[in-house]
Write a structure and sequence with these properties.
InterPro entries: DUF6301. The chain is α+β, with helices and mostly antiparallel strands. The protein is built from five helices and ten strands.
């Protein structure tokens, strides 16, 4: 059973009690919209540009890189991470589902189903991308034409979306090649 509720003027998809208790999630089309929005920014971003991008979505900032999201999640904060070396935004990330303290098998299956829905929708706009599954998590990643990188991660307790800056992607690529 699925239900939609209004939170701060935004329709929020939640999963009904028969599926996942009171767990809430950001609607699939909204996650796609947010991914496209962040990828579409003019990277690289200064700290101020990263903060302004979140505030333009109506997400009030806390002044330290945290932004309150209006989707009714139990941990509703987006984060803008600024690198010490370059002084610009290295990544922006946020949860797209509630965090489950304990994730019984049925809830893990439901999280997986939701993850697959997000991946399918993101593939429709970002292309095939790559997926990787382990005991710890299930990841889907996409490179973009502007050099930024999208990563969707299901760690079996929550699903997060990361947007990595082109410079961060290059650093991660160099680290991977060093191993």
């Amino acid at each position: 059973m699925r239900f939609v509720q209004k939170v701060g003027g935004v329709e929020v998809l939640g999963l009904g009690e028969k599926e996942m208790g009171d767990m809430k999630s950001i609607p699939v089309d909204e996650v796609v919209r947010l991914a496209e929005y962040f990828v579409g920014l003019d990277w690289p971003l200064s700290r101020e540009q990263g903060y302004s991008a979140c505030e333009a979505l109506g997400w009030p900032g806390s002044g330290d890189g945290g932004f309150a999201m209006p989707y009714g999640l139990n941990m509703p904060e987006a984060s803008v991470i600024v690198g010490k070396e370059e002084g610009g935004v290295t990544r922006i990330y946020f949860r797209v589902t509630d965090v489950q303290r304990e994730a019984p098998a049925d809830e893990r299956l439901e999280l997986n189903d939701l993850f697959v829905s997000y991946v399918d929708a993101l593939r429709a706009v970002l292309g095939r991308g790559k997926t990787k599954k382990s005991k710890e998590d299930h990841e889907a990643t996409w490179g973009t034409s502007n050099g930024s990188h999208i990563e969707l991660v299901n760690n079996w307790r929550t699903i997060r979306l990361y947007v990595f800056s082109p410079s961060c992607v290059e650093t991660l690529r160099c680290l991977d090649n060093a191993h």
